[in-house]
Amino acid sequence: MKRLAFIRNSIFAQIVGWAIATAAVITFGLWLLTNATIERSNRQALERAVDVDLAGMVDIYASGDREELTKRIKDRLALAPRNGDAAHYLLADGRGRRIAGDLTQWPGLRASTSQAADIRITSGNLAFARATQLGPDLKLLVAHEYRDLSTLLRQVALVFLTGGVLATLAVALGGWTAAHRLAGRLERINAAFRQPDDLALEELARGSAGHDEIDELTAHSGNALARLKRLAAAHRETTDHVAHEMRTPLMHLDNRLVKALAATPDAETAARIADARTEIRGIIRMLESLLDIAASEARRGDRHGLSPVDLSALTARLGELYADSAEESDHRLILDIEAGVAIAGEEMSLTRLVTNLLDNAFKFVPPGGTVRLTLRRGPVLIVSDDGPGIAPEHRDGIFEKFARGGSSLGTEGAGLGLALCRAIAERHHLEISLAPSDKGACFTVSPEFRH
Questions:
Q1: What is the pLDDT of residue 48?
Q2: Same fold? 7-151, 196-298
């Protein structure tokens, strides 16, 4: 199947296919031209033979008389043709009545103008004939049958078929060899784009031994990828440094607030300190979520670091954990997990994806509501609930950063949970969507649709 997909999608395979088709069409065209040339040459030779034969008969009549011409016609008819062009004659009076020859009926050619045309002789064969006027009451018709070219044409067709097959095979072999070499050289570029590791980038930057356009493209691609990788590394280093510099003072501030609470302040001060700690922890969580989103988006399509993950076991384990807390919060959790569902991914990221969707569901579903976790092969992960759902005006941008669903429950958040879910899904070649539902919200995670 992969080979068929390569043949169908590869530009080089298409070029080879067009080259083979062109070679076959040219060969067929040359065969038609050769056939037409042979038939035209045969007719021209036949016309010349008839004209020469007729001119000889006219000379005989001019130097002798009608009896002499009649005798020569009988002599000609008595001789078997050696070249395969059977000759036929008709000497007739002014009304077309036969005087001599093997033809019995005048074909209707005008002798006065030496008219020539193809006629059917008595045996039914096709012949080329020309008539001429010998005297006021005497006219002559000379006809030669067309040669049987079927054997020659079959031989020519066999030659062209053999030559065409050999030429097509040569074009196919040469084109496929060239296309395979070009495809191999371009595959190095594609492989480097799919997984831009240092070794692949070094090989691209060095280029090949040649100096054609592909080598130039290879070198430029390697240099560009190396620059992008350096920029991405510098960006990650900067963001990590900024995050560290922001997280550290926030953690120190939180520790000071803990010490302030330990000093047993009055109730109002303690409440304000607790609110400040809540805001600090919210800022830290928002900062970590933004970093996780950026990291997942930066590694989208990168297969490095992915390993087989038993998604069935992972979701079952998380479902059991959430089932206990669901009872405490007066919620009902229904698990519908198909066994044996696996995916190539990062287990920690996939765990974060499932927990974010479950947290989002339990946060917006009122007590007494139901949350359903479903897993099917594909993989297809569905988290649905019977809560208030997503307001129509918020559905389009629900997966954007800092977007909120507008729930009436009064719950608050940074609006980064679903954005992180989308980034993790895209990292694993999945897509997350908000499916239509009669009640509540229904989030579906399924394989990406490739155009």
A1: 92
A2: no
Q: Rounded CA gap, 254 and 218, in Å?
A: 53
* 305 vs 1: CA distance, rounded Å: 27
Backbone angles phi, psi at 401, to 5 degrees: -65, 140
Q: Which residue has the tokens 């696996």?
A: 342
Bridge partners of 334, per DSSP, are 372
Q: What is the CA radius of gyration of the chain?
A: 46
Give me the pLDDT at residue 417, please: 75
- Please give the distance of CA 149 from its chain centroid, rounded to a whole number: 47
Tell which residue, 439, 435, 419, has the closest CA to residue 427.
419
Q: Return all residues near 408 (Cβ < 8 A) that are at least 6 apart.
A: 388
- Whether 49 has a pLDDT exceeding 50, the answer reads yes
180, 159 in Cβ contact below 8 A?
A: no
Q: What pLDDT score does 25 carry?
A: 87
* Predicted local distance difference test score (pLDDT) of residue 265: 75
Q: How many CB atoms lie within 10 A of CB 419?
A: 23
Measured distance CA(55)–CA(339) in Å, rounded: 99
Has residue 170 got a pLDDT over 60? yes
Q: Which CATH class is domain 196-298?
A: mainly alpha
Q: Using an 8 Å Cβ cutoff, are 365 and 439 in contact?
A: no
pTM here?
A: 0.48
Amino acid identity, residue 50? Answer: V
- Rounded Cα distance between 403 and 375, Å, is 26
Domain 307-447 has CATH 3.30.565.10: yes
Per-residue pLDDT tens over the stretch 257-292: 777 777 777 777 777 877 777 777 767 666 666 666
> Which 3-state string (H, E, C) describes 223-259?
HHHHHHHHHHHHHHHHHHHHHHHHHHHHHHHHHHHHH
Task: Give how far Cα 336 sits from Cα of 289, 373, 374, 444, Å.
Answer: 29, 6, 5, 14
Residue 65 CB coordination number (10 Å): 10
Amino acid at 310: D
- pLDDT of 67-107, one tens digit each? 888 998 888 888 766 555 688 999 998 888 889 988 888 98
From 88, 356, 303, select the one nearest 193 (Cα to Cα). Answer: 303
What span, in angstroms and rounded, lies between the C-alpha atoms of 67 and 146?
A: 29
Pick the CATH number of 7-151 from 3.30.70, 3.30.450, 3.10.620, 1.25.40: 3.30.450
Which is it for strands 430-434 and 307-310: parallel, antiparallel or unpaired? unpaired
Distance CA 247, CA 259 (A): 18
Domain ranges in the chain are 7-151, 196-298, 307-447
